[in-house]
Amino acid sequence: MQVQISIGENHRFELRDALLVYGDRQRSFVTRHQVVLHKGAPPTLEPAQPLTLGFLESLVRSLMGGSPAEVLPENVLAKGDRMIAWWTAACRRQMFYENSEQKAVRLNGRTFPQPPLIWRVDNGDLKIRALAENKRPSTGTTLAVAPFWNLSDDGRVCTGTMRRPDSATVSSIPNWEQGFYESAFTHANVGRLTRHPGGFEGLWTGLADKRKPFPLETLIRLPQTLAQFVRGDRG
Q1: Which residue, 5, 6, 229, is CA-closest to 128?
Q2: Nearest 5 degrees, angle CA 156-CA 193-CA 161?
Q3: Burial 152-162 (b: 16+ CB within 10 A, else e)
Q4: Which of the ends of the chain has fewer CB neighbours closer than 10 A, N or C?
Q5: pLDDT for 24-44, tens place per residue?
Q6: Is the separation of the CB atoms in 179 and 163 below 8 Å?
Q7: pTM for the complete prediction?
């Protein structure tokens, strides 16, 4: 049994393996069978083989088509097929607030100094942590809570209507950052975001349109390291 399909040019695909899924209401398992082709007769299946991790990884790479090689700039910290992590130095960015209780309405559209940040995109999810020092982190560098609304306790961004790129590539980094800052910050997902005595509103009100650096001493430090964050561990 052979199939021909045109994808820019002719490729001939040959039936090689079959995966059979068995299950009841509670559990499932999968077996892999090599396929034997016969002229003038239906194909038959060889005895079941164990479904190995190597086979699954090879299958996923084949289905995804692989990722093209990219030159990694200095700001990129880690890169996988569908994951990329990078850092941004302290800077100034415009931020937008939209809240039904009119909290932080005076901050909407103003420009604020930003702490240095770690960004991680994995399978379309964006997570952000802050850095207590304005320099490129190393594997064991401990991170801090990013003091923003719309973030959960593990740093995951509640994207809502945020415009998100479809990929996790070097070229997509500016679009991830732009999408984050151009979306409206609408609510707090965790209780405490900063050590500032005036809390969240006191922190950002004091920074609005200021050219002074972000006060890194107001960050809430975490035991989580960069390596744990990149792997997706809570720390």
Answers
A1: 229
A2: 40
A3: eeebebeeeeb
A4: N
A5: 888 888 899 989 988 888 999
A6: yes
A7: 0.74
**How deeply is 24 buried, as exposed, middle or buried, from its count of CB atoms within 10 A (0-12, 13-18, 19+)?**
exposed
Q: Is the pLDDT of residue 65 over 70?
A: no
Place of tokens 């809390």: 199
CB neighbours of residue 197 within 10 Å = 8
Residue 171 is encoded by which pair of tokens? 């070229």
Residue 40 contacts by C-beta under 8 Å, 6 or more apart in sequence? Answer: none
- Under DSSP, is residue 54 helix (H, G, I), strand (E, B) or coil? helix
Tokens of 189: 């997902």
Dihedral in degrees, nearest 10, Cα atoms 107, 113, 117, 119: 50
Map tokens 């045109």 to a residue.
6
